[in-house]
Design a protein that fits this description.
With about 350 residues, the chain is of the alpha+beta class. The chain has one domain (about 10-330): Sulfite Oxidase, Chain A, domain 2, CATH 3.90.420. Helix content is about 15%, strand content about 20%. The protein has nine helices and 16 strands. Strands 4, 7, 8, 11, 12, 13, 15 and 16 form an eight-stranded mixed β-sheet that branches. A five-stranded mixed β-sheet has the order 6-5-14-9-10. The protein has a three-stranded antiparallel β-sheet with strand order 2-1-3. Strand 11 and strand 12 (about 235) form a beta hairpin. The two termini are about 35 Å apart. About 40% of the residues are buried. The model is unreliable at about 1-45 (pLDDT under 50). The chain binds ligand MTE and molybdenum atom (MO).
């Protein structure tokens, strides 16, 4: 059975998509398993795993391999079988933003190999009763790893469709037992200039560590995941190994990579891009075709892969197409002011 989420308050076993509806939807979806109308989460997985035969095998640590293998595709948020075809692994792992390795799109793929991702630990602290430093294994193992096929829309107006493997951020937050003062979640990326040459440069724009943040209710939304893999394997380093956030309704810069610290805090964190250019990048960074970047339009996006002859420009959708799921989080807000 599949749970169809229309708004967060509808979450739960009550709202179940009958199998017949799901099956006819699957027929409509055509070839690409896991991509269909609406969002279906939870329950028994019924979609067949996409075929990753062309994806280079990874080399996950012993504890992660079985977690990745048991992941079931439960996803299904992309809606257009033509537009929302999976981006080839090659594009998703060679065209990256990861300023710790340089500002060029190919820098991360060329340089991120040198990052040592094992062992990895994450500090969970701030307004929590159950904080501390945890081995990544101990954070991931208690949760179910799920496959989620999400659109990723960069604020620079390009986008991809990526099949992530991840755990629910909500699970991790709940296990930390937030106090009543916890209102926001702050995330921090590793600082290790010997392995991250972009951090070594005195010309770097960013005041390291790279920082991101979410309001607590955003962080608790079932679409927000902490990814440990993609395309059926562990994360390539350039995509934020071994542990990165994925918030599909927000511009890509919110999806912070290689996380080493998660803090529950009272005040809204200042994220790295907001610190650099507050008139261009805000705290919310919800994908919004009606609110332009001061220097370019956000009404359309370039869906990768594309080429000169096939520019593949498509309309950007409100909340990146996840409005039914997340719109209620922003009821009553002026999204032009709170961008
Ligand atoms: N630590 C860190 N996280 C980061 C970035 C970065 O430079 N450093 N870039 C962000 C931006 S702008 C985007 S679009 C996505 C890109 O993710 P991908 O390379 O896996 O597609 O990562 C985000 N997370
Ligand atoms: Mo981005």
């Amino acid at each position: 059975m599949l749970i169809k989420i229309t708004k967060p308050s509808d979450l739960g076993e009550r709202d179940v998509t009958p199998e017949s509806v799901y099956l006819s939807r699957r027929r409509f979806m055509g070839g690409l398993a896991g991509i269909g109308a609406g969002l279906a989460l939870g329950g028994r997985a019924q979609a067949a795993a996409p075929d990753y035969a062309d994806v280079p095998a990874g080399d996950p640590p012993d504890w992660l391999a079985p977690k990745l293998a048991e992941a079931e595709p439960r996803v299904v948020a992309p809606t257009d079988p033509e537009l929302d075809k999976l981006t080839p692994f090659d594009d998703a792992s060679n065209y990256n933003n990861f300023y710790e390795f340089g500002t060029g799109k190919s820098d991360p793929a060329r340089r991120a190999d040198r990052l040592e991702t094992q062992p990895w630990s994450v500090v969970i602290d701030g307004e929590v009763d159950n904080g501390g430093r945890f081995a990544l294994e101990d954070i991931v193992t208690p949760s179910r790893v799920e496959e989620r096929i999400y659109r990723l829309r960069c604020v620079e107006a390009w986008s991809m469709v990526i099949p992530w493997l991840g755990i629910s951020l909500k699970d991790v937050i709940e296990r930390a037992k937030p106090t009543s003062k916890a209102k926001y979640v702050r995330f921090e990326t590793l600082v290790r200039p010997e392995q991250m040459p972009g951090q070594d440069s005195s010309f770097a724009l960013i005041d390291w560590p790279y920082v991101e943040g979410l309001r607590l209710d955003e962080a608790m939304h079932p679409l927000a995941i902490l990814a440990v893999g993609m395309y059926g394997r562990e994360l390539p380093n350039q995509n934020g190994a071994p542990f990165r956030l994925v918030v599909p309704w927000k511009y890509g810069f919110k999806s912070i990579k290689s996380i080493v610290r998660i803090s529950l805090v009272e005040q809204p964190p200042v994220n790295s891009w907001q610190a650099i250019a507050p008139n261009e990048y805000g705290f919310y960074a919800n994908v919004n075709p009606n609110v332009d970047h001061p220097r370019w339009s956000q009404a359309t996006e370039r869906r990768l892969p594309n080429s000169l002859f096939s520019p593949n420009i498509i309309d950007t959708r409100m909340f990146n197409g996840y409005e039914d799921e997340v719109g209620s989080l922003y009821a009553g807000m002026d999204l032009g002011k709170q961008y």
